[in-house]
Write a structure and sequence with these properties.
545 residues, alpha/beta, 10-stranded mixed beta sheet
């Protein structure tokens, strides 16, 4: 559930191979077993992050179409960081997904090192690139130039602007079909859930442990509905509401993003001595939108127009930890006409020259469920939402608009049912914008053996295992012993934690929360390590989903 394209791509990604449909899917090998799932052969990784973590990598062959297990196959890229605890403490494999859909998960096999009390060392951590993603083969690509700078304004104030984006959306969908149609027909969340069970089978285990972020929570919901007895322990951080996949979910996001950007405006105003943009939310808000509107005629640095502006500042509605950098960039532009910070943030956000995650995002969401095909429906709903939430609404609409023209047939979503799942730990900040908190409350009801850890007032998306010890210690308890907090009556959280504090800028230079945050949760103090910060920043680019 993302409008931003990740820049994190695993080494070995090949997009140029997708020249024609016949080359996109490999023929089944003669020595494949009947179910179409090939053996795993582990070897060295090429990604330096994985190499440093002493990870192994492999490609797993799986059926393109599980209804035709002896037919064409594809390959999933996997990584593994093995347990280092004594074998008597070994607790099995932990499969991790970062969300998107479309995010590369290979580097998430390194996540176990951040579980408190060395509990992560009890598991083999398995990262993977879902079908079509990153180093998996084939990797989807439709138009690598789609996110080039200085695109048309998102808000279709004129018929010409509206037609420009409709034409772009149709063209992108057609390009996807021309290059990748055989794979596009098998890119649903259900397909990926079946891939997860193929990974389980190839690893030779009866049950999986699973850790999913953002869209990865929906993948976990679908997997645990289809294979409830295969789930041992499951952590779901920032839960997708399965009632709203996917059209309504995006409209719900728009309102939440607007609320969170206003929260950021208030924070900027609090530090007017640093940013010099006004000492109250309304003043900062006016300065922000005035500057955005002025970019229609003259993009900042020739690259950042109104739509790129929305893309880069959307990060402020996702996470608190980047607030200082965005405040500095806004201040530098408005007060000094210096576009350097804006251009840097835009390049981080939109990854010009690589559309892999965007292509996969659409391939999954457009086929999980049928989107409205009448433009008048989109027009009505998005203008109504824009009236109360102007910040993100039309950017989000155009990000998803290729679904109107998508060439692959849509399916029917799974009716999520967690009643047979032994247990799950759910985590969410109550002002999470990409996956609003109501989704976690709904999943808690659907999983009667689950527990929900809420962070009241927090606006950061998918932040577990990044320094909030109140949250992270409960994850460690659950992964270490299976212990969950007591379940409370009613439809609310079972336990709460304070979110990590807002970053504090200084007048002498940027001071980001990722570099300097100190957490005092549960009466303890921890400084986030450089490795943890680096993973947080890489993961953030994928977790916008």
């Amino acid at each position: 559930m993302s409008r931003l394209v990740a820049t994190l791509v695993a080494a070995g990604l090949v997009l140029g191979a997708l020249v024609s449909a016949p080359a996109a899917v490999a023929a089944p090998a003669a020595n494949q077993p009947a179910d179409g799932v090939g053996p795993l052969v582990w070897g060295p990784c090429t990604d330096p992050v994985l190499t440093q973590a002493h990870a192994d990598c492999a490609l797993l062959t799986v059926p393109l179409d599980y209804a035709d297990p002896t037919g064409p196959t594809i390959q999933l890229a996997l990584s593994r960081v093995e347990h280092t605890a004594p074998d008597a403490q070994y607790q099995g494999v932990m499969l991790v997904n970062p969300g998107g859909p479309g995010g590369s998960g290979l580097e998430l096999s390194t996540l176990g090192q951040f579980v408190p009390n060395r509990v992560g060392s009890d598991y083999d951590w398995i990262g993977f690139d879902p079908r079509g993603v990153g180093a998996s083969k084939p990797a989807l690509s439709c138009d690598n130039n789609y996110f080039g700078a200085n695109r048309a304004n998102y808000a279709p104030f004129t018929p010409d602007l509206q037609q420009t984006w409709l034409t772009r959306s149709q063209g992108y969908a057609q390009a996807c079909g021309k290059a990748n149609l055989p794979l596009l027909q098998h890119m649903s969340t259900i397909d990926s859930a079946k891939d997860m069970d193929s990974i389980r089978s190839a690893l030779g285990v009866d049950q999986l442990n699973y850790y999913g972020f953002s869209y990865g929570t929906y993948l976990g919901q679908v997997y645990s509905t289809l294979y409830p007895q295969r789930v041992r322990r499951m952590v779901l951080d920032s839960n997708v509401d399965p009632r709203n996949v996917w059209y309504q979910a995006n409209l719900n996001q728009d309102v939440a993003f607007n609320n969170n950007i206003n929260t950021w405006f208030s924070w900027v105003a609090k530090y007017d001595n640093v940013f010099h943009l006004g000492d109250n939310q309304l003043t900062v808000q006016r300065a922000f939108y005035t500057a955005e509107n002025a970019l229609s005629g003259k993009p900042a640095g020739g690259k950042v127009g109104p739509d790129e502006w929305t893309d880069l500042f959307e990060q402020a509605a996702y996470y608190r930890f980047g607030w200082v950098d965005m405040g500095n960039a806004l201040s530098a532009w408005i007060n000094h006409q210096d576009p350097g910070g804006l251009i840097n943030l835009y390049q981080q956000a939109d990854s010009p020259g690589d559309d892999n995650e965007f292509a996969v995002y659409l391939a999954v969401q457009c086929t999980d469920v049928q989107w409205p095909t009448a433009w008048i429906t989109w027009q009505r709903d998005n203008w109504q939402t824009y009236a109360k939430a102007p910040f993100e609404t039309w950017g989000n609409a155009w990000y998803n608009a290729p679904c109107i023209y998508w060439p692959a047939k849509a399916g029917t979503p799974v009716a999520v049912d967690g009643s047979q799942v032994a247990g799950a730990l759910l985590i969410d900040e109550t002002l999470d914008a990409p996956t609003p908190y109501e989704g976690s409350l709904e999943v808690r009801q659907l999983y009667p053996n689950s527990r929900l850890v809420a962070e009241p007032g927090g606006t950061t998306h998918a932040d577990s295992l990044f320094g909030d010890l109140c949250v992270d210690d409960q994850i460690a308890d659950y992964l270490g012993t299976g212990k969950l907090p007591p379940r409370k009556a009613g439809n609310g959280p079972d336990t709460t934690c304070a979110p990590l504090p807002d970053p504090v800028p200084t007048a002498t230079g940027p001071s980001t929360s990722t570099n300097h945050t100190m957490s005092t949760q549960s009466g303890r103090v921890t400084a986030q390590s450089e490795a943890q910060n680096a993973l947080r920043e890489r993961l953030a680019r994928v977790l916008r989903g």
